Amino acid sequence: MNMSVLKILADNARCSVEDIATMTGLSYDVVKSDIKELEEAGLIRGYKAVIDWEKLDNAFVSAVIELKVIPQDKYGFEQVAETIMKYKEVETVYLMSGSYDLCVIVKGKTFQEVAMFVSKELATMKEVTSTATHFVLRRYKELDVELIGTSKDDRGTYLL
Fold first, then answer.
1. What is the pLDDT of residues 16-42, one digit of tens each?
2. Is the Cβ–Cβ distance between 57 and 65 less than 8 Å?
3. How far is CA 72 from CA 27, 43, 76, 123, in A?
4. pTM exceeds 0.85
5. What is the DSSP string of 96-156?
């Protein structure tokens, strides 16, 4: 497995096999094989575009929800996290250290929609002992992509 291929795809998943081969000095066939191995091994879990939703008229609301949870026998937090991640409103679920157990990032059309999801679905789970909701007011950077400022050409050369 070639880490340079993985790093390039993490920065820009739209890079073609040809471009990655040029940037790394590897052959087309080696890069194609590396990508296939990374996907089959589950290291590459998907490809997504980072979208600045605030620039659209139909933007959505996001919130970071802190959950305190009672761990389950033999499963700890896994079962609760797996249940929560199945909701369509849920974008992200993290197990955390510190003052709360799970960090859940949710989205909805309005503040009220998100608040109702939290109060009707998350807060009512028997394993959840408390919630704290923090609404995202503005995004400045997401998944290593700056969402404010001037755009620039990011097709730089990779020296790894």
1. 999 999 999 989 999 999 999 888 988
2. no
3. 49, 28, 5, 17
4. no
5. --SS-SEEEEEEESSHHHHHHHIIIIITTSTTEEEEEEEE----SEETTEE-SS------P
